[in-house]
Amino acid sequence: MNSNITVLLVDDDSDFLLQQRYELEAEGYKVVTAEGRKKAKEVLKKLKPDIAIIDLMMEAPDAGFVLSYEIKKRYPNTPVIMVTAVTGKTGIEFSSITDDEKHWIKADTIFTKPVRTEQLLKEIKRLVK
Amino acid sequence: MKISNEERLKVLIVDDEEGMCLGAKRIIRDFTVDVNDLGVKVLFDVRSVLKGKEFLDLIEKEKFDIALIDYKLPDFSGLDLLELVTKKGYDMIPMMITAYATFEAAVQATKLGAYDFIAKPFTPDELRSSLRKATVHLLLARHARKSEEERRKLRFQFISVLSHELKAPLAAIEGYLNILQKRYDTISKEDYDMMLGRSIVRLEGMRKLIFDLLDVTRIESGDKKRNLEEVKVEDVTRSAIEAAGFEAKNRNIQINLDVKNPGTMRADRGEIEIIMNNLITNAVKYNKDNGRVDVSLDHMDKKVRISVSDTGIGLEQEDIGRLFEEFVRIKNEHTIGILGSGLGLSTVKKLAKLYGGDVTVQSTPDVGSRFDVELSSMD
User: Fold this and answer.
1) Fewest 10 Å CB contacts: which of A42, A87, B165, B228?
2) Which chain B residues contact residue A13 at CB under 8 A?
3) ipTM of the complex
4) Domain B229-376 belongs to what architecture?
């Protein structure tokens, strides 16, 4: 059903990466993973994901922002879901983010960790048509 | 403490006698107070007004630190003024000046919040002495308040970071359990085994965090009973090397120990174990495969010098400063996948200070790091 849809998962938390991979594969998605921005860039050279799910704080605190920008530059039509635990780590709230900021951040959706798989699947369905 | 800072306090005099205002202003303007406990030299800016109403208007608009209030003003009684000032809770020390120096008046003024009572006519020295007392009191009170606020903020920060660190492994384990519960047939048996393995690793990490946390709180609260004995640091080091041996062997990392001058020190064995375990585990954890760890011990007189160097990923200069803070874990492409509580090195630093020493680090990215610890025997 979803076997022709490729999801790029980027996170430095290898457990989260694995779990999301299993969950998405069980739904029939094709999944490619990368443990950071640099590795994700290598992947992006070789394939165009239909959607990307990326973590914000990886090798650098803003690695997710930069990667999101890079994805949009190379593949403007690829939707990006940003997943972040930033609230717990730094006290920064993302819920108060404005539409203007979202535009600047270049992510289509921002989720705060912990994110439920159902939530993620629903959002993928909405963004990939 | 050495006087290294200057601070200016603002004094406001309210008195209907212009001559008295001028005289007091002259004395105060040239006066300075050294608050040795805080290393601060205090200088004064001084203003005066003739009426109670002017006084109240002015302190509403502008912040003053010390007020000298005359007992008898044309429009107000000094005591009423004092009561108003105290009620409003200004961060200002009020003092009464009066020609009618009676014991009752002094008691009443003190009850209403006057810090001191200066009887007219006063000598320049009497005024200076009162002002000195008020200044020291004010600065120490402010300092205490500020430290308490900082402590509260730090404690809050500690707790919020800690809860995040505890939530992370829980979320990981929960994620695996959720998948296991669903029993997807897209997942192989080996993958399920791997998930169970990862769950155990994360649980162990969480346990380590809790133990590290207990170490920190025990050291900080100081109520841990220290069991001082003659400790052979070499033995403790060998155990720590043995404990790190499993991971070292898996990654073909060689650990060498060089004891320059064998000896003992008076210490709490548990504390020395924490230091050695943390340094050696880190040297393996942040090493490269096929790397080396060199540990050296040198007893000299009442001191022991410990050095642990590795051929690991090293540190950027900008990260070194933060390294010994609680919960700081350096994030970069080399540290992806390495677990840790972020408490180890901050604990080592606290312990080293407890032994009158310190821990320092030299590091080159991609070449390795070297940690030096100096401890004094607790004789």
Assistant:
1) A42
2) 168, 172
3) 0.79
4) 2-Layer Sandwich (3.30)
